[in-house]
């Protein structure tokens, strides 16, 4: 590459603010003498700003619940001392994938109707239903603040299992759950 | 990472919460399929859980996790025959580029997304990490497992292709 192309290669990193001081000075000197380069920088900054402003709906807490179930499943199969057959692993993965998909779908849709039992065993968990208007981001922020996580659900009734990251949900957290406008119902799973 | 290697699920959950969104966005920018991307994200963090003990601390944790994600994306695209790595663009890529038009198009998400998708995997990966995650070129090189010079060259060519594509969208009057 020529000197100008060296500068051009640094331009995107000048736009994202990650160059060293020496590189930054080199780019700035080139920018002073080259209006076309300045225009390219404007285009790159516009692209970066546009991409960063885009809203991405990630799996969030539902993805975490799926991950924790897989971790637990893997731990169980290890501690049982007998490895799972590949076909069985595949079936478990499929069930987990479907459960995660349903979790997202059911959360967004009506959660009423006659119920089934939760997929997980839910021992020691608190069972909650979320307010239909609560967004995933609000739920994520709320649970993160309390250091709680979704470990199971949803049932057809929209019941989710919630546990503390370090074990059982404290009475204090239970009260916070019951008081939150994001939660419709919260009961201990005894 | 030491806690995760020791089986601490809360530590894994903490790392997931910190990196889930950027890693997912990175995967999605390559695969363009939310369900497939969610599956890969899951696989990435399962691998983090299984191999945390092998993390040597020679790079940032973020770099290591993005590296896992990148390898999984490439593996999937190889398996499904979707890997596209076009050669470098011709040196005449600048000809006919209206940079002022590119500045305008760069403000429209639909144009930027379209032009990003036109890039090959390696070019798109470098641009995504530089612009979505504000990564320095050295870190992108670590994620991709290539020398820093390679990333600079990829970015250089990707930039030319993006400007040409964006400029063309405006001059051809493509609607947003």
Automatic annotation (TrEMBL), chain A:
The chain crosses the membrane at residues 89-109. Keywords: Membrane, Transmembrane, Transmembrane helix. Residues 6-32 form the Putative zinc-finger domain. InterPro entries: Znf_put (IPR027383). Pfam families: zf-HC2 (PF13490). The keyword Transmembrane applies. This is Putative zinc-finger domain-containing protein.
UniProtKB/TrEMBL annotation, chain B:
Residues 15-82 form the RNA polymerase sigma-70 region domain. Keywords: Sigma factor, Transcription, Transcription regulation. The keyword Transcription applies. InterPro entries: RNA_pol_sigma-70-like (IPR039425), RNA_pol_sigma-70_dom (IPR014284), RNA_pol_sigma70_r2 (IPR007627), RNA_pol_sigma70_r4_t2 (IPR013249), RNA_pol_sigma_r2 (IPR013325), RNA_pol_sigma_r3/r4-like (IPR013324), WH-like_DNA-bd_sf (IPR036388). GO terms for molecular function: DNA binding; sigma factor activity. NCBIfam families: sigma70-ECF (TIGR02937). This is Sigma-70 family RNA polymerase sigma factor. It comes from Maritimibacter harenae.
């Amino acid at each position: 590459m020529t000197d100008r192309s060296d500068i051009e290669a640094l331009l995107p990193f000048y736009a994202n603010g990650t160059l060293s001081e020496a590189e930054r000075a080199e780019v700035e000197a080139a920018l002073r003498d080259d209006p076309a380069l300045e225009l390219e920088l404007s285009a790159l900054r516009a692209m970066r700003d546009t991409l960063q402003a885009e809203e991405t709906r990630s799996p969030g807490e539902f993805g975490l619940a799926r991950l924790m179930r897989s971790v637990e499943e893997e731990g169980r199969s290890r501690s049982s001392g007998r490895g799972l057959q590949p076909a069985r692993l595949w079936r478990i993965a499929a069930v987990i994938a479907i459960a995660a998909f349903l979790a997202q779908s059911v959360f967004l849709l009506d959660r009423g109707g006659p119920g089934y039992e939760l997929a997980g065993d839910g021992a020691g968990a608190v069972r909650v239903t979320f307010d239909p208007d609560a967004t995933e981001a609000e739920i994520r922020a709320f649970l993160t603040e309390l250091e709680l996580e979704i470990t199971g659900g949803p049932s057809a009734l929209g019941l989710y299992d919630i546990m503390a990251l370090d074990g059982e949900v404290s009475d204090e957290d239970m009260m916070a759950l019951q008081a939150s406008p994001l939660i419709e119902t919260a009961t201990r799973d005894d | 990472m030491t806690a995760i290697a020791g089986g601490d699920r809360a530590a894994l959950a903490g790392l997931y919460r910190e990196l889930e969104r950027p890693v997912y966005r990175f995967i999605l920018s390559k695969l363009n399929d939310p369900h497939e991307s969610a599956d890969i994200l899951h696989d990435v963090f399962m691998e983090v859980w299984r191999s945390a003990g092998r993390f040597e601390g020679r790079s940032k944790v973020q770099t290591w996790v993005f590296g896992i994600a990148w390898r999984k994306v490439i593996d999937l695209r190889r398996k499904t025959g979707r890997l596209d790595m076009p050669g470098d663009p011709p040196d005449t890529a600048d000809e006919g580029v209206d940079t002022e038009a590119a500045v305008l198009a760069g403000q429209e998400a639909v144009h930027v997304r379209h032009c990003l998708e036109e890039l090959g995997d390696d070019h798109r990966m470098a641009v995504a990490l530089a612009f979505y995650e504000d990564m320095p070129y050295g870190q992108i090189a670590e994620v991709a497992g290539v020398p820093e010079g390679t990333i600079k060259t990829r970015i250089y060519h990707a930039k030319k292709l993006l400007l040409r594509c964006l400029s063309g969208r405006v001059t051809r009057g493509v609607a947003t």
